[in-house]
């Protein structure tokens, strides 16, 4: 991984080790969706904690380096901590409910994040159209969005450096940090709207999403993709079974 570029650190000789990058993106999306739906009813810490632990064990096989994972997963970690804090302060289950809320949110977010950053955008679009039968227009939108993520990261760095060159530094003032952050965020929003408008015009000019298109590559479904979905189902069943056996299972609206 370079100094300022987000990439997957997957050496050529490490292809067997980083097996997650070789899975069909459609299978990874289905697994992430199954985990998200499966964890909705469980609000205890054990069920979500077991799922989160197993997902964390797969991170070394994803080819994602720590810096990239922390940078992209930071907002979700902040959301989990915020959710746990709110539930601890205002919830009825105290610390146990707070931990359960935070762990469940992270267990739902992490599989989707791994599915996105370990998949090639073009293969993701092919998998959505060919395997999941998603209409081509939203599939092309997903492809465009994934292609724009590195561009937005570069624009964020450019905005930060431009403001720093103008002497807009927060120093040690936390209020200035927040004010300047939202200023950069607004500038990035404006840039992203302009970029999205240009991209949409270019895609319409090339007739993307107007009808059936041929595919340069075939999205292949392998045995490992089926095993991933089977393993995901077994993980959810095992998490619920363990939580019920320990007597910690708490269901939503129960």
UniProtKB/TrEMBL annotation:
Membrane topology per the record? Multi-pass membrane protein
What keywords appear on the UniProt entry? Membrane, Transmembrane, Transmembrane helix
Q: Which Pfam family, just one, is annotated for this protein?
A: CbiQ
Q: What is this protein called?
A: Energy-coupling factor transporter transmembrane component T
TM spans, by residue? 29-57, 69-91, 97-117, 227-253
Q: State where it is primarily located.
A: membrane
Which InterPro entries would you find in this protein's record? ABC/ECF_trnsptr_transmembrane
Q: Where in the cell is it found?
A: Membrane
- Domain of life, per UniProt, equals Bacteria
């Amino acid at each position: 991984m370079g100094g300022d570029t987000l990439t997957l650190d997957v050496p050529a000789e490490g292809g067997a080790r980083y097996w997650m990058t070789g899975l069909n993106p459609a299978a990874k999306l289905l697994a992430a969706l199954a985990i998200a739906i499966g964890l909705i009813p469980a609000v205890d810490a054990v069920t979500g904690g077991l799922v989160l632990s197993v997902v964390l064990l797969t991170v070394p096989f994803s080819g994602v380096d720590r810096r990239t994972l922390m940078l992209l997963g930071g907002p979700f970690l902040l959301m989990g901590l915020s959710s746990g804090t709110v539930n601890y302060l205002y919830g009825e289950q105290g610390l146990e409910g707070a931990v359960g809320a935070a762990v469940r949110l992270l267990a739902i977010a992490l599989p989707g994040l791994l599915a996105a950053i370990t998949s090639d955008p073009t293969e993701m679009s092919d998998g959505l159209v060919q395997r999941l039968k998603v209409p081509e227009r939203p599939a092309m939108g997903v492809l465009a969005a994934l292609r724009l993520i590195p561009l937005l990261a570069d624009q964020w760095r450019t905005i930060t450096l431009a403001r720093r060159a103008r002497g807009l530094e927060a120093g040690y003032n936390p209020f200035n940090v927040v004010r300047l952050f939202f200023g950069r965020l607004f500038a990035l929003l404006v840039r992203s709207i302009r970029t999205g408008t240009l991209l949409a015009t270019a895609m319409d000019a090339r007739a993307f999403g107007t009808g059936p298109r041929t595919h340069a590559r075939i999205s292949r479904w392998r045995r490992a993709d089926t095993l991933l979905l089977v393993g995901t189902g077994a993980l959810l069943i095992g998490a619920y079974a363990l939580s019920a056996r320990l007597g910690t299972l708490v269901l939503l609206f129960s």
